[in-house]
Design goal:
single chain; mainly alpha; Arc Repressor Mutant, subunit A; Four Helix Bundle (Hemerythrin (Met), subunit A); 2 domains; two-stranded antiparallel sheet; 10 helices; 63% helix
């Protein structure tokens, strides 16, 4: 299969060296590329050429290289034996392991939040719950993914365990690409059940019921497909729906069933 062309992200104008804080350029490149990768604007396998990126961001190659090193450390880009760098592929084979880890973090963070939350934590959690519900109603997939991530991070922060929070943020960010493919399988029209599951988590946290929160967190990652087989069945139809890319369409078609099975049995 032919290598995908490097896709452009929005360039950032680099400030004059005399007025720029050291490392600011690398941070800008890192944030822009990371966002494009997580939201699948840069497809898995896309090449990331330092020279092209240097021209695109109007920066020297040094901050570009620093940004790619950081992204490599997060597993979002891969350096090949020929020293070329590409966007990391999505490893569908390891998805059951990913969902096993994520299910555990849903449970432990929600349980901890029920015990340790403060009133200001509930305000933040409810705000992100509302943002997710609104994004679902708009069929705004990227909005859903951002709000879902922020919702669960707010719950983790309410639990007060920085180790849980740091681990969970990486899992949630890694899962943003997976969610994008999964939501595409529904043509971005999610069942109301996903919103209701968030509501159940909030209610359990507000009640201070650790066991109920644990159960609600578990259901979030393992929907009851045995009881509701039609509710969670992907409805992907158009081979060109996923981001207008035939490559992404093939990935979505191949991955949707694997993702759904992993969610159901993880």
């Amino acid at each position: 299969m032919a290598m995908a062309k490097t896709q452009k992200t929005k360039p950032a104008t680099e400030a004059p060296a005399s007025g720029r804080v050291r490392g600011q350029g690398a941070q800008t490149v890192y944030e822009r590329l990371r966002q494009s990768i997580l939201e699948l604007e840069l497809e898995p396998g896309s090449p990331l050429d330092e020279s092209s990126l240097s021209e695109q961001f109007e920066m020297s190659r040094t901050p570009i290289r620093e940004a790619l090193v950081r992204l490599s450390g997060e597993g979002l880009v891969t350096t090949l034996p020929n020293r070329n760098t590409v966007v990391s592929t999505i490893d569908f084979v390891r998805l059951p392991l990913y969902f096993e880890a994520t299910a555990l973090m849903y449970r432990v963070t929600t349980r901890s939040a029920a015990v340790h939350h403060r009133p200001e934590h509930l305000l933040a959690i409810r705000g992100f719950e509302g943002a997710y519900s609104e994004a679902v109603a708009r069929r705004d997939a990227l909005g859903m993914i951002r709000a879902n991530r922020d919702f669960h991070m707010a719950i983790a922060e309410a639990g007060g365990n920085v180790y849980f929070t740091n681990l969970f943020v990486r899992l949630l960010d890694e899962g943003r690409r997976i969610l994008r493919l999964y939501y595409s399988s529904f043509d971005d029209k999610l069942p109301r059940q996903y919103v209701d599951e968030h509501g159940a988590m909030v209610a359990a946290i507000e009640a201070g019921n650790a066991d109920l929160a644990d159960s609600a967190g578990c259901r979030t990652c393992r929907p009851d497909r045995a009881a509701n087989p039609e509710l969670y069945r992907p409805r992907y139809r158009s081979q060109h729906h996923a981001h207008g890319s035939p490559l992404m369409a093939r990935i979505a078609i191949a991955g949707a069933g694997i993702i759904g099975a992993a969610i159901a049995t993880g």
